[in-house]
Amino acid sequence: MNRKLMMAAGMTVGLSFLLGTIINSNFLAQAQGMGGNVASSVTSSQTSGNSINTITVTGDASMAVTNVINQLQINYNITDSAVSAVMKDEQSLVTRLKNKLRQLGVSPSNYQLYFNSVNVGNQMPSANLSLNVETKSNTEVEKLMQNLNIMPNYVNNMYSNLQSVPVNPTVLRAKLFDLALADAKTQATMLATQVGDNLGPVVTINVNPQENYQPGYGSMPNQPSIGGINLINNGNSGSSELSTQISVTYELVTS
Q: How many whole angstroms separate alpha carbon 209 and alpha carbon 200?
């Protein structure tokens, strides 16, 4: 017996059955998730000698992060006439930065200084000094940017970068997974209804590949790198968001 139903909004799901023969087939449909169009499919497969129909959808979820750690990185490029002069300049700059950070009330445990080796090429010797500072206060970030703009004559370039990372990424991941699973179930229920079936139990579930979240440095609360979520920083605005995608396959039960 053959059955074909056309889905609304350009979504097509095909289920085919042939007496005496089990034929596997995949039909692609588009379902709107929280983050945009995601792929959904209905499949006829064989389990324990019985033919079952399944539907696979991708649940998408994202959320803005408000409780964050601000990670400010400032790089100072030092250039001078000799390697010894560059080394002396570096020590002088380190002293100035530490004094300024102390005046601003920044604890030594909340910042780090990195000095790269001196580069000696065809031009004057140069090196890069990096300052990394962590703070939970947006106001303090602005104050740091203003007061750490130190440019003595041996510093020929200075540039900065700011990113915000969540304080408790593991807790947020659990919330994101709940939202993504709910989104997947909503899609699957809608599509099952379109073909006249009911949504059955979960067959498989997979977290789509994401860039593992990597926490920062310093004394702020850190966790090991965790997978399943993607951190998106919105430039120097200090805002960020986390997102995830979960693919779920459900069994379709004929009503």
A: 26
Q: How far is the C-alpha of 74 from the C-alpha of 157, rounded, in Å? A: 11
User: What is the rounded distance in angstroms from the CA atom of residue 98 to the CA atom of residue 184?
Assistant: 51
What letter represents residue 156's amino acid?
N
β-strand pairing of 68-79 with 126-135: antiparallel
Q: Which residues pair with 25 in a beta bridge?
A: 44
Number of CB atoms found within 10 A of residue 14's CB: 18
- Kindly report the pTM of this predicted structure: 0.56
Nearby residues of 111 by Cβ (< 8 Å), 6 or more positions away: 101, 131, 132, 133, 134, 218
Name which of 179, 171, 174, 244 is nearest 210 in CA terms: 244
Q: What digits encode the pLDDT tens for the residues 70-123?
A: 889 999 999 999 999 999 999 999 999 999 999 999 999 899 999 988 888 778
Q: Residue 6 has which token pair? A: 């056309």
Scan for tokens 């994401």, then name that residue: 210
DSSP 46: E
